[in-house]
Write a structure and sequence with these properties.
About 13% of the residues have low confidence. It is built from three helices and eight strands. It is α+β, with helices and mostly antiparallel strands.
């Protein structure tokens, strides 16, 4: 019984070629060979409890202040200024600058609008306001979803100040 392996690039797709059984059959038989690979099973992540005031763990989201500030600014444009989702989708971010200690970030859009996002310590909330011209000031609490979305919720209209906010 003769066995041969196809040359690489022969388009066999991992098949080996064997001679047909000697019981009167002619030609070769192609059989697919599946390698035995041990696939490691993912280990479940340990359950983490949410941080106080967040409602969900936002640790990963908060390490990327640029992305988080952009999401907060978009929410502010819709909730506080009444800009439609269709218009917000068309706006491009021209620049995002965060202070050295990352307690405040400025998001500048291509239409010249500039929004400041201030990060308050515990309990976790943010203060968002427009800086290119007068506009409403908003405080938002937030929760992070497993799919990466951040859900913002307006807090009170109290005039408290976040650290680093002028």
């Amino acid at each position: 019984m003769r066995r041969r392996r196809p040359r690489s690039g022969a388009g066999s797709g991992g098949a080996e070629i064997f001679p047909a059984s000697s019981g009167g059959g002619r030609g070769l038989i192609r059989r697919s060979i599946q390698p035995e690979i041990a696939v490691p099973q993912p280990t479940p992540a340990p359950a983490r409890s949410p941080k106080q005031g967040e409602g969900g763990s936002c640790t990963g989201q908060l390490t990327d202040k640029d992305s988080f500030s952009w999401k907060a600014a978009r929410f502010y444009l819709n909730e506080a200024l009444g800009v439609s989702e269709a218009v917000i989708r068309q706006l491009r971010v021209m620049d995002i600058q965060c202070t050295g200690n990352e307690k405040m970030c400025f998001v500048t859009f291509d239409n010249g609008m500039r929004v400041a996002v201030s990060y308050a310590p515990a309990p976790a909330f943010i203060v968002v306001r427009r800086t290119d011209r007068p506009g409403p000031r908003r405080e938002y609490s937030f929760q992070c979803q497993r799919d990466g979305r951040v859900v913002f919720q307006r807090r009170s209209a109290a005039p408290s100040r976040a650290p680093g906010e002028p």
